[in-house]
Structures are given as C-alpha cells and as structure tokens.
Amino acid sequence: MHLVYDISSVNNAYSFAKNFKKRFNTNCFVATEQFVKLIDNKVLYETTIGEVVFFIKKNNSFSNVYYYAASIEELSLALPQLIINMGDETLIVDIVTKDELCKEKEVFELNGFSSYTSLVRMSSMGSVDISDTHIPTSKLRNARKEDVLEIHGLLMSFFDPRAEQLPDQEDLLLWIEQDSILLYEEQGKIAGFIIYDLKTTTLYLRYWFVHPEFRDLKIGSQLFKEFLKRGQHTQRQLFWVIQTNENAIKRYLHYGFKAEKMYNFVLINKHIKYEK
Amino acid sequence: MKNKVLDILHEVRSEFDFSKSSNFIEDGMLDSFDIVTLVTSLDEEFNISIKGTDIVPENFNSLERISTLLSTYGVES
Description:
The structure holds two protein chains of two kinds. By secondary structure, chain A is an alpha+beta fold. Chain A contains eight helices and 13 strands. Chain A has helices spanning about 10-20, 30-40, 70-85, 105-110, 150-160, 170-175, 220-230, 245-255, and strands spanning about 1-5, 25, 45-50, 50-60, 65-70, 90-95, 115-125, 140, 180-185, 190-200, 200-210, 235-240, 260-270. In chain A, helix 3 (about 70-85) packs parallel to helix 4. Chain A is globular. Chain A starts with a strand and ends in an 8-residue tail after the last strand. Chain B is an all-alpha fold. Helix content of chain B is about 45%, strand content about 0%. Chain B has three helices and no strands. Chain B has helices at about 1-10, 30-45, 65-70. At the A-B interface, helix 1 of A face helix 2 of B.
C-alpha cells in the first residue's frame, strides 16, 4: 500500500477497473476537490489487488475503504487480501446504492463486516411552500469566522465521524463565506445550526443540530423554516438521514419530504455500536 | 446524439429539464453519484468506455460538453 501523491491515481483507478468491461463497480463518489484535499493532507493510500484498486482514507481511529472494482466478483476475490493487509485496523465502508438488497453489501458481510448504521436520502420536489407563520427571530444569524471553533467542536462532540463525513474547520470557513451556516444563538451560545448548500435548482441540507440543553424550544423548527425560506426557489430539496432516527424522519415527513430509494449503508469490521 | 443524451440525463434525474441549464453541476442537477451513473449509461448506449481521466465534472456540466466528450470517442453528432 502506498501514499497517493496525485489525483491522476484516482482517475487511473477508474480507467483500470472499467477497462476489464466486467460491469465495473465502485463505492467512490467523493468529489474531486475532496480527493485533492485528502492527497494534500497525506491521508489517502492506494493498493491494487487483482482487478480492484482500493483507496484507504486514514482517520484517527479508523480508515474508510473505497474501491474501484472490475466487477462484484472481483471485489469478493480481492477483499479478503485487503483485510489481511490491513491487520487490526478498524475499517468503514460506505455503500451508496439505489438497491436496498445490494450485492456489494453482501460481499462485505461475508468478509466479517456488519451494519454500523444506514442512511436514506429524503427529498421534496418543487418550490418550497413557506409557512405564513414563520417570522424569523433575531436569534437567527449567519455564522461568522469567529464561530468556526465552536461549530467544529459541536460537530465533533455530537456527530459520529464513522457514520458521517464531518467537515473540518477549512470546510466550515468556506460555508461561512457563502453564508451557508445558519445559527441560532441563545444566552450567548450556539444553541443550534444548519449547514447547507444552495445551488440554483437544489437545496442540500448537510447538518442540522440543536444542542441538548436547548431542545424542545422549537429552535430546530425555526432553523429549518429559515433554511427552507432561503431555498424557496429551488426545485429539489434533499438530505441524508440515519434510518433509525425515527423522530427526525417523522419531522421531515411532516415538512413534506419523502424517502427516496437511495441508501447509504455504513459497514464496519469491528463490533462497535452506533450510539449517537 | 444530443437527444439520446437528454433521454439518458432524464433517466438519471427525471425531475429536471436539462435543456434549460447551461451548467448542470453548478445548478445542482447532477452530483458525483449521478455522474458515475451517467458514465455507465453513456458507455452502454454508445458502446464506448469513457476513460477515468475524462470523468471530471467539467466534461458533464452541459449538453455541449457531454457531446464534445462523446465526439472524442467517435460518437457522431
């Protein structure tokens, strides 16, 4: 296994696995700029086993596995060797699929992985209908640069990096520059926030958080209504939600969102439970 | 060829009118998952194999750019 120094390694892996013409398969949907950042930070490794190129993203206590495989069969042949090579390391693999019973998931399960958590994509279509009752409070504001440390600390404390890709401070600063972090302030503290991407047609909710000390005060709904208002001219509004988070799903259904047939299965090779 | 590409784009994301956008990525109509799906469909439809080095967002951000890419693989317009 060797460190990746150049984005061309990723592009070449794509070509390598596709060239066998055996129904190419990947779990790698990472945006190019994110890959470049991983390479710059020297945390991305590569290894080729048979007809599969694996990329390993090293984190503090676990590694994410990405693959470009010539086929699912080739993946099932190569995976046992990867697991041996990785020794005792905790491995996480994300499989994004439209098929709830996907074969890639089975391949990993047959090799000692089990479900850590799973997410489903929810969306609503058409322009947003803003409730007449939404009067934004002065406690809502855009995040500023000086909020970065506090927001980052909350993300690290209350979100699970194994289950979700969490932004670093640099990512947060970019969102702040785009006025894409909405805060709710209470008693001088950040009581909640929403981080989102707003594009011409699409409003994408990335993170929605209300601090446990401030729950049941309708802070979440204030944030959410303001978020919807900001994207009211988009055609599609979407986000991923943990499938076991029934309360959140109920709330989203209440706002008119529907679950898509789009899943993200997070699998792990250790007996660690998702508890967030 | 452009009509076929539009049909494929419609299969990938049926909710959008791709003929009205000049930048599918910036407009939020295609994400990285959609691009991989789109590449597979274009490979199958036109019997080509788009190289990994060509699978970059810039090549898929408009109908024109997709057509230009396909023409480099010998697909006639």
